[in-house]
Amino acid sequence: MDPAQEAHNREAFRQAVVNTLERRLFYIPSFKIYRGVAGLYDYGPPGCAVKSNVLAFWRQHFVLEENMLEVDCPCVTPEVVLKASGHVDKFTDLMVKDEKTGTCYRADHLLKDFCKDKLEKDPNLPAEKAAEFRHVLAVLDDLSSEELGAKIKEYGITAPDTKNPLSAPYPFNLMFQTSIGPSGVSPGYMRPETAQGIFVNFKDLYYYNGNKLPFGAAQIGQAFRNEISPRQGLLRVREFTLAEIEHFVDPEDKSHPKFPDVAKLEFLMFPREDQVAGRSARRIHLGEAVAQGIVNNETLGYFIGRVYLFLTHLGIDKDRLRFRQHLANEMAHYAADCWDAEIECSYGWIECVGIADRSAYDLRAHTDKSGVPLVAHEKFPEPREVEKLIIVPVKKELGLAFKGNQKMVVEALEAMGEKEAMEMKATLESKGEAAFHVCTLDRVVTINKNMVSISKEMKKEHQRVFTPSVIEPSFGIGRIIYCLYEHSFNTRPSRDGDEQMNFFSFPPLVAPIKCTVFPLVQNQQYEEVARQIARSLTAYGISYKIDITGTSIGKRYARTDELGVPFAITVDSTSSVTIRERDSKQQIRVNVDEVASVIKEVTDGQSTWGDVLWRYPTHSS
């Protein structure tokens, strides 16, 4: 199939899914009566139920299974916290403006759309031009502001709505700014992620955990990003739900006792070597990926495996799920390894979960800014003799030389690593002075021999004090749910074959309503039986919908199939009823007093539909 036809089919499929979701109130644009606001959506009753089921399973699969410590921190965050984490200075996207109307666009999105459009819709595109566009798409995230601007100019890209010329790209901070309290002197931001709340509470959580590592802390909550030009429906929004885990480990031991439980899993992985060589994702055994060093360590590998199981249990198609390793230029300098769980939908491959080994960066950053040591301790059975680096800045000499900058130079000298310190010591002894780069001043200064003393001494230590590493799986819940909607959406011909009927094939685990109860005809006896069944379902904690309208049973089935309800109970006698399964449309006959327990059994996953089909007589309508 040619690319243009493929793009058209994807668009038509997406439209069918979105129309169904909006019509059945899974979600709708927020403030619709006021013409809505881009990037903000309301979840309706079935959407709320799906989200609630996904989060309940997330808690069960991660928080309960790993005995994690769950916290709930405020959305409003003081500026100092996000200054320490780097968000105030670096949490930006490059933006361009329509020079006449002032409308803003994300620069990389305009370039991406242009290249994809050419590749999909221009049949006469020369091979070398096609290769160039593909290369631009591959390196898009790595382009600087200047390179992005040059490409936009070179390709003659203009504002999509007006065709007016565009400004040069410039950075825009994505955080929503606010002030805490009425005076306006305490600036804050709506948090762009939930992780910082866990990092700043590390000391208390470590104490709560009996001063033991490793441990995981988890948080589910709202995050906010002031997207420049949000599009792609639920995939790119300005307020969204994140579920994040911060798993704290000893940097010298990243093994995981439960890694053997997931080591035999095999799924699509996309290591950086394969991406650079232009190869496709391939199936790899997780155990082999860790053994060969493709995945940095066992704990990171363990969480990759658990994320795979979580997503596939929800109903994500395992053939449209891959784990892509970040390229070297995508990773922060402090990160040891990062993988994204990407799910394929009509918008392409979408990052839905990030799993990163962030080393000790976050705890160190908050230690430096707050002055509170966020560290762990390992007590030795016997005291150990260790060689310690001793750096003593001579503050009087440094004060005379650097005046107001003395404090920054002292801090920089004290923060030197062993290699840098010993090199400086050798230079000072041979030359009497050494050049030294002070990061906080962003300049090189000259240090004389009389300004600092550097030595090594043997000391007895009873414990090791260290900053833990953190492995962070971060889940975009809205993105996972949207991809689940697409993966579960199906059509089939109606009974008389004159129209296509939509249905969602959700697993019972996430279905918004577990079953419906229909009296076959409007009849007082049948309605009383339906109410009796409803009471039993409520007692079992099973969500249901009762429909006593006189509409034909076929239409009632179609209505609930479109909500993804897995089971329909039809009351056609006072002693027994039928249970219909949504995907196969098969029916079994069950006694009235057994029906609620059968539904409980299959919705809880204790039995499959195949198991109960074998135990009860089938019914043909």
Provide a concise account of the structure shown.
With 621 residues, this protein is α+β, with helices and mostly antiparallel strands. It is built from 22 helices and 29 strands.
Could you explain the architecture of this structure?
The protein is an alpha+beta fold and about 625 residues long. It contains 22 helices and 29 strands. The strands form eight sheets. A nine-stranded mixed beta sheet has the order 3-10-11-21-16-15-14-12-13, sandwiched between helices. α5 crosses α7 (about 145-155). It is globular. The model has no long low-confidence stretch (mean pLDDT about 90).
Strand order of the largest sheet: 3-10-11-21-16-15-14-12-13
- Share in β-strands: 25-35%
Number of DSSP helical runs: 22
Distance, first to last CA:
40 Å
User: Runs with pLDDT <50, length 5+?
Assistant: none
Radius of gyration: 30 Å
Helix fraction, binned, reads 25-40%
Structural class: alpha+beta
Tally of extended strands?
29
Main β-sheet, in a few words? Answer: 9 strands, mixed
Shape: globular
Mean pLDDT, as a whole number?
Answer: 92
Write the layout of secondary structure elements.
Elements lengths: L2 H21 L3 E3 L11 E3 L1 H20 L4 E2 L5 E3 H7 L1 H4 L1 E6 L6 E3 H15 L5 H13 L5 H10 L15 E4 L3 E3 L7 E4 L4 H6 L1 H7 L6 E10 L14 E11 L9 H4 L3 E5 L1 H5 L5 E4 H6 L6 H17 L6 E5 L11 E9 L2 E10 L3 H10 L5 E18 L1 H8 L3 H9 L3 H14 L1 E6 L4 E6 L3 E15 L2 E8 H12 E5 L6 E5 L10 E5 L4 H16 L4 E3 L6 H9 L5 E5 L4 E6 L5 E5 L3 H9 L5 H7 L2 E2 L2
Parallel strand pairs: 3-10, 12-14, 24-25, 24-26
Antiparallel strand pairs: 1-2, 4-9, 5-6, 5-7, 8-9, 10-11, 11-21, 12-13, 14-15, 15-16, 16-21, 17-20, 18-19, 22-23, 26-27, 27-28, 28-29
Keywords: Aminoacyl-tRNA synthetase, ATP-binding, Ligase, Nucleotide-binding, Protein biosynthesis
Protein name: glycine--tRNA ligase
Pfam families: HGTP_anticodon (PF03129), tRNA-synt_2b (PF00587)
